[in-house]
Amino acid sequence: MAAIFISVGNRACRSAPRLLVSSSKGSRITLNSQLLFSEHFVNTTSPVGPGWYSSGTGVRFASRLSGDRTERFRKNILVAAGAAVVAGFAAGLGHFQRAEMASRVVRDTEKESEILEKCKSFMSAPVTDVQALQQRKDEMSTRMEMLIMETQSAFCRALEEVDGGKFRVDQWRRKEGGGGISCVLQDGKVFEKAGVNVSVVYGTLSEDAARQMRSRGKELKGKDGKLPFIAMGVSSVIHPHNPHIPTVHFNYRYFEIEQADGSKYWWFGGGTDLTPVYIDEDDAVHFHSTLKEACDKHQVQYYPDFKKWCDRYFYIRHRGETRGIGGIFFDDLDKPNKEEVFNFVKSCAETVVPCYLPIVRKHLNDSFSADQKNWQQVRRGRYVEFNLVYDRGVKFGLATPGSRIESIMMSLPLTARWEYMHEPSKGSPEAEMLEVLRNPKEWI
């Protein structure tokens, strides 16, 4: 005589379901199923004999059969049990799907609420309608727009706190598509001119802009000469009154182009760099160390590579000198994948306050002479030369129809100076500064 034990599982999501048939001697037959349920088998022995126990129903069944009757019973019970599995699966799946859908709704609602809550802290309403951002909350364009808006707000608030003034906020629209938010603080107590811009523009690339892409090695194939694109970024340049407080610049951006076959080509770019008028080694070490720490969170090779790139990029070729003491710079970054590059850009954007504001506060009360102010004006002239002759962002902006010229030229200082055949005295702090600009050094 043999006892037959059958277990039909009805608990979800641990393993593929199985229908078990077991004898009192321990042998068992297992029927595997593709259903996403796991077995729950309990072999029990009681005064009425061995049997199986369903923990889900609290019902115990036992069978004491032999011979052909055992085999017939086994087949019948397997058929019945199989039907029970299917019915249980259908009911369980419906419950599982409903639970998953409810969970997804909660997550989506939380993300939409998060977007709305973040918008309250921005300098202005985002360029893209908030409802559209909520509907496309998981798309990279939405995530990047939220990041650049957050970066603009955090930097502006920090500058307002140290200056005591308030930014003028201008939201502008571009008839070809998109727009931007320009925040400018002018003639403040600390900052002669401080600008922090956000732009989100889209449309089709002009021929001039497309040529610039090709000059950077991008073989982009448009349809009927058109290349739909979306570009967004945050950009800032700060020009302080005091020549002992450095000028700082940062820019972080995202670009996406659709080619003729419908494929999308994307990349990120940006960087942060410092342009002091006088060398303060502690400031340089702090600035570069903060950037290196952000880079090292992602790849240890980022900082040395992007520091060199920065020195090469911010180079005034016709003068044979760099614009400042550098920082990091990268462009056309599309590896290893979109998510990892975005997280790297986010880490960099989060450094703009801690890498610069401590330097500002350190030199707030430094005294300076008329000659030192004059040297600041000369160095600003070099800054203007680079921006107008070499800067890619300025070139792209001027070549893009509908661009806002006031926002593009925001990077220029209120005042600058060009002296004929100007050369600082040997051994002077000004000559020391010029030596560093002609021969970039490693700060850390």
Structural description of this entry:
The chain crosses the membrane at residues 77-96. The chain is an alpha+beta fold and 444 residues long. The protein folds into 2 domains: 4-97, no CATH class; 126-438, 3-Layer(aba) Sandwich (oxygen-dependent coproporphyrinogen oxidase), CATH 3.40.1500. It contains 12 helices and 17 strands. The strands form 5 sheets. The chain has a 7-stranded antiparallel sheet with strand order 9-10-11-12-13-14-17. A 3-stranded antiparallel sheet has the order 1-3-4, covered by helices on one side. A 3-stranded antiparallel sheet has the order 6-7-8, with no helix packed on it. A hairpin with a 4-residue loop joins strand 10 and strand 11 (191-204). The relative contact order is 0.09.
First-to-last CA distance? 83 Å
The percentage helix is 40-55%
In what order do the strands lie side by side in the largest sheet?
9-10-11-12-13-14-17
CATH superfamily of the largest domain: Coproporphyrinogen III oxidase, aerobic
What fraction strand? 15-25%
The overall average pLDDT, rounded, is: 81
Large-scale geometry: globular
Radius of gyration: 33 Å
Instruction: Write down the secondary-structure element order.
Output: EEEEEEEEHHHEEEHEEEHHEEEHHHHHH
CATH fold title of the largest domain: oxygen-dependent coproporphyrinogen oxidase
Structural class: alpha+beta
- Please write the CATH class name of the largest domain: Alpha Beta
Helical region count?
12
Q: Are there runs of 5+ residues with pLDDT below 50, and where? A: 1-66
GO molecular function, one term: coproporphyrinogen oxidase activity
Keywords: Heme biosynthesis, Membrane, Oxidoreductase, Porphyrin biosynthesis, Transmembrane, Transmembrane helix
Pathway: Porphyrin-containing compound metabolism; protoporphyrin-IX biosynthesis; protoporphyrinogen-IX from coproporphyrinogen-III (O2 route): step 1/1
Pfam families: Coprogen_oxidas (PF01218)
